[in-house]
Design goal:
Layout: H1 3-21, H2 25-33, H3 36-61, H4 65-75, H5 82-89, H6 94-116, H7 124-155, H8 157-186, H9 195-210, H10 217-228, H11 232-242, H12 246-286
Helix pairs in contact: 1-5, 1-7, 1-8, 2-6, 3-4, 3-6, 3-9, 4-9, 4-11, 4-12, 5-6, 5-8, 5-10, 6-7, 6-10, 7-11, 8-12, 9-10, 9-12, 11-12
């Protein structure tokens, strides 16, 4: 496991712990139950639409097979933990984002290998055998910090009121550091995989971000950022264990760079637009 992997795990742990401090289990379940149509749409977009978008791009751009496989790994593996952090940054519905995150991770046990099996030199059973231990670890990284945050919030309300905003700010600073670090250390990879691969990565990130337009304004940010942030850690594991060509891994890294490099500024834009809308609404009410 690389330093970057450990950093991402630490970031996800702190993010989910801090998000859990501000919520209850009932709030997370209620957020999914009150919008079953949006939840269903998120599942369809994440496990069906985005992989099909990539298949369409491959038909148009004629991507090299290793590049296609790397990007397909990302499309077939939703549920990146920092999607909830970007939702928080954008002032979206964090409870809904966390609920989707858990659902995506559970479904990845089966659906990620099923998408990859027709294009893989390995059998679907082999993909599942390699993916399940990693998904179990990732699920633990999601449920453990989230459950710990929820438990602390219930037992130590005064501590939560003081520390939750601070921990959330630390998470945001760590995310900013991750984006900057990836651009400095891995940015050169963007120029080694060719413009069709860059175009496909940029378009799929854009489709993920724009997918929130399918739902109402209240859940739009959570839908968008939880969809655009894929489970790059799982994709990297499968890239290194199943594909000898290093271009597969480079394609995964390229998506990760676009995912963070575009996702964080987009969250800031959404935050500012919501703040401006709130200011205008307050001005109208005061009149």
């Amino acid at each position: 496991m690389s330093i970057v992997d450990l950093y991402v795990i630490a970031l996800a742990f702190l993010t989910l712990f801090s998000m859990g401090l501000g919520l209850t289990p009932r709030a997370i379940l209620r957020s999914l139950a009150r919008a079953p149509g949006t939840t269903a749409a998120a599942l369809v977009v994440n496990f069906l639409v985005l992989p099909l978008v990539l298949l369409g791009l491959d038909a148009v751009l004629e991507l090299p097979q290793p590049i296609f496989l790397g990007l397909l790994l990302c499309m077939a593996a939703p549920g990146g933990g920092t999607g909830s952090l970007l939702t928080y940054l954008a002032r979206g519905d964090v409870a809904f984002s966390l609920g989707l995150l858990v659902l995506f991770t559970l479904l990845s046990f089966v659906l990620t290998p099923l998408w990859m099996a027709p294009f893989s030199p390995q059998s679907g059973a082999s993909l599942i055998a390699d993916a399940v231990p990693m998904v179990l670890r990732i699920l633990a990284f999601i449920l453990l910090p989230l459950g710990l945050g929820l438990a602390v919030a219930r037992r130590l309300p005064p501590w939560v009121e003081r520390w939750q905003p601070r921990l959330a700010r630390v998470s945001l600073l760590m995310l900013l550091g991750l984006v900057a670090g990836l651009l400095v250390t891995k940015g050169h990879l963007l120029w080694t995989i060719g413009w069709p691969a860059l175009a496909a990565a940029a378009i799929t990130v854009g489709v993920g971000l724009l997918s929130g337009l399918l739902t109402g304004r209240g859940l739009r940010a959570a839908f968008s950022f939880t969809t655009a942030v894929r489970n790059v850690t799982l994709a990297m594991l499968l890239a290194t264990t199943h594909y000898a060509d290093e271009l597969v891994l480079m394609a995964v890294l390229a998506y990760g760079l676009f995912m963070y490099g575009v996702g964080m500024p987009a969250a800031l834009v959404v935050k500012r637009s919501q703040a401006a809308a709130g200011s205008r609404q307050s001005s109208v009410v005061s009149r």
